[in-house]
Structures are given as structure tokens and as C-alpha cells.
User: Fold this.
Amino acid sequence: MPMPVSILSARIAGSTPDRRAGSRRRLRSLLWLALALAPAAVAAPGDTLSPLMAGEFALQAGQLDEAARWYLQAARSTPEDAAVAERATRIALLANDDGSAAQGLRLWRQRAPQSNELRAATATLALRQGRLRKARRELDALLRSPDPRNWQHARLALAGGRDPQRVARVLGWLVDDGAIPNELRAWQEFGQLALGLDDAALTRRIIDQLAARFPEEPRVAVLRASQLQHAGREQEAREMLRQAEPRAADDPEVRALLAMAYESLRDYGEAARVMALGAQDTFTYGTRAGLLARSGDTAVLAALYAELADDAARPDPARRLLLGRMAEFLGRPAEAVEWYRGVPGGPQRHEARARTAVALHELGRTDEAYAEARALQEESAASTGVRRDAYLLEAELRHRAGEGDAELDVLDRGLAAWPDDTQLLYARALAFERRDRIDRAEADLRRLLVSEPENVAALNALGYTLADRTSRYQEALELIDRARAADPDDPAIIDSHGWVLYRLGRHAEALVELRRAWGMLKDPEVATHLGEVLWTLGRREEAQKYFDEAARLDPANRALRRALLRFGLPLPEPEP
Assistant:
């Protein structure tokens, strides 16, 4: 599935930032030296740098099988360098090449036998190979070692195991063995992992342990509520959240956790009520207003609006912006315009002008709305980011109005001013994709990648688009693999990977990846993809569960509606 444009730091699965820095510096030094000496190095006997170069180039091209092969060769050619052996192992794990991973591990073990990262990678490979008792031994030793960070390595190792049933079985053993350290955060993280594995019994056991070890900790109640919600016991989940409320007034973190838990239950009114506990500021008022708007409780929202409006005599820009948003929530766009126009000069002024355009559009005064956006585009005193965002704003307003051609015209004008702007290119690519102009969407994403070859969002979006809307599945896989190499734990990328595996006919592998994505991100598109794979495998009752979940989250989701039409299933009614 596509994700927002962002430049994410490149990483390989399982590494931790502090541990990677030195290794990466050494590898970069080797690669730069290799590039400088490339003509001589290619021809030299006993060459150690060429396979390193070839491996890195293959990795950058998304050819993970080739990258794993070359990095393993580089590791064999550099007998003293544990960093190269470690990287060879991690790339092989990412490529699902268990044979190369095992060879890399042997080289790594010879060079750094006491490494905790090595032990974690060994456990991951053992999980994937079905050698569960070996994985248990490695993880038990890791969790019982004196380094307080090692439980994080153990959690990453389990998360890399892929097969949820195997991971759940080993995690259950670790719980029974008393291996998890008596630290709240560690138990919380393993509890969240169990939730993502969809193993209700294991989740309950972990949360029971949490409650016994930390009986006064409200965060435990929040986690137990998540477990009850997962099991479909929503009323019990609400009762559990209420038990933690007494701490919310004095602890902003607890208050926020409770509000998020109620929000996940789609009980926005309760989330707003919890946010009203304790001291209030513009942030909490704004959060409450947004939640009340989603709940549809206009009476409470109107009362809050009136309360804040009575105290708005002084020209506080943040408060007036908030009142404008609340007026929009209440369906009073004319009042919103007045609040926004009352925001004095300063950094909030440009945001107020953008919101003015939105409110004018809601009033049906579309020409004024577009004029406000264009004025911001031409505002010489505004920053480049503000002016660029004004093009994105106008394009979004045109899209909402169903003016597809005008939306593209706006983005064309923006790109005339900033030809290589990533956000404008990405927005235009999505606009082309919505209009089924896949060739133009691809052209914009490739143009973006020319200026930013490692833009993970663009790599993922292009790979997903090719997998979803064309038959160029192998090319799509290489693009998605490049994104995976940079950010292997992003659920949007994991979903894209699962989807392209499905399109390639690798249904069992696809199901594993899509279940991982769903455990991390409850998104209608992920649910739809899971449903489609299960339906194709003949598991139609289970598939229908995911289609129903996707419809609950977003009945108008395009991926869901396309899938239901393909299978001749009834379409859900869109929300009013």
C-alpha cells in the first residue's frame, strides 16, 4: 500500500542504531575506496572490494538475492571483518535466503562469537527453519544476560521469525520459563507482539503476568483493554479502561493512552471525556474538539466552543485557529472564516489563510477559496514550504470538488515553479493513479526517484502501483525490495511485499507477510489484501471476516470495492 512521502533512514532488519554506526562507517569507507579503485579492483586477483561493490549495487537495485550472494562472497573475502559478515547475514535474512544466512552466521560467529546481535540473528534463523528449541535456547540466554538492552534484541529476533504460530510458541515458552525481565516496558512490548500474533491465549497469559507484577500500573489496564477488544469483548475493555481513569487527571501520558484506547474502540465521546480530565491547554482543547466532532456530539462541542469563545478577546493566534477549526466541526464555516481572518501576523497567519480557503470552499464560495490559495502561492513573504503547500491545498480542494482536470492543472503549475519537488510529484502521481493514467503516475514516481533514488515512500508507491495495476510483478518486487532494505519493519511496505508475492502466485508467502502487516496496522487496504488471498486459497469464511473488517474501517475504500466486485460479493453501503 502507498504511504506518505518521507525520507526514512536506511537500515537493515534487526540492527539497532547505536550498534550500526561504526559498522556502517567502515562499510562506507570500503565502498568509497572500491569506487575510487574500481577499474583496477575488477581485474585484480584475490579481489575483496568488487563483491562488496556488487552487493551494494544489487541491494540498491532491489535485487536482494543477488545482494545476498555478493555480500556472502565479500564476507568470505574479508576474514577479519565481522561487520561485513553481519551485513551479509542480515541481507540474506531479508531476502529469505536461509542457506546464505546460515553461511553468513558461521562467518560472523568466527569473528564475533560473543555478540548479542549474533545471538538474536541466530534465533531468527532458527525460528524460520522450524528449529524452535534452538531459538528458545538463544533467546533465553539473551534475555538472562546482564545487558538491560538485550530484551529489545530478543523482541526483534522474534518479530523476524515471520510464522506467527512458531513465534507464539517460542514466546510462550519464554513466558513459562520466567525469562522476560521484570521491567514494565519489556512486558508491554512482548504483550504488544502477542497481540499482533492474534494468539488470544498467549496475550492473556502475558497480560496476567503484567497485572501480577505491576498491579498499580494503569498502562497494564490499557494493554488488557486492547486484549479484550481483540477478543471481541468490547464492553469488558471499556470497564478495564475506567479502572485506570483515576490516574489520568495527574498523568498526561496515561490520559493520552486512555484516549487512544477509547479511540481504537471508536468511542470518540469517551476519548474526549478522558481528555477533559486534568489541566487543559490549547492542545488538549483541540484534541477534545476533534474527538467530539468525530463522535457527532455537537451539543458538547458547541458548549466547549462557546466556553472558549468567551475567553477569546485577546488576539491569541493558537486559540483563534482552534476556534476556527471548532466552527468548521460545528458546520459553521462563516464563523470559521471570521476566526481565521482574526489571526494576527506571525507564523500562524499562513496556516489561518490556508484554513480560510478550506472554510470558503465549505461555504460554496469556491472561486474565493481558490483565490485565497493562489494568493498564498504568490506570497513573497511566505516560506517556500508554505507556498508549495498552497498548491497542494488547492489541488486537494479541486479533488474534493470532483475537478480532476483542474487538480492536475494546479499540480502542473506547482511543478513549473518547483520542478523536482517530491511532494508535488507524489501528489500528481496519486492523482494520475486515481484517474487510471498509470503510465503518467509511473513517470512522476520515476522522476521523483531520479532526484531522490532512496526515497522509500516513492519506491514503495511505485512498486505497489506496478503490482496492483499492471502485470510487471518482478519489476514491482525489485522496487519494493529496495524499500524493504531501507525500512523492513514498515507495515505499509510489508503489505506491499505481501501483495506483490500474491500477484506472483506465491500465496503462502503472501499470507505470512500480510498477517504481519495486519498485526502492525489495522488498515482497510491490508484487511482487503488478506481477504483476497484467503478467498483465493478457498478459505472463504475467514476471508469474509477480513472483508467485513475492511468495510467497518472504510466502506468506500477503493481496494475493497474492487476486490468485492471481482468476487461477485455485495458492496458495503458508504457512510453518509
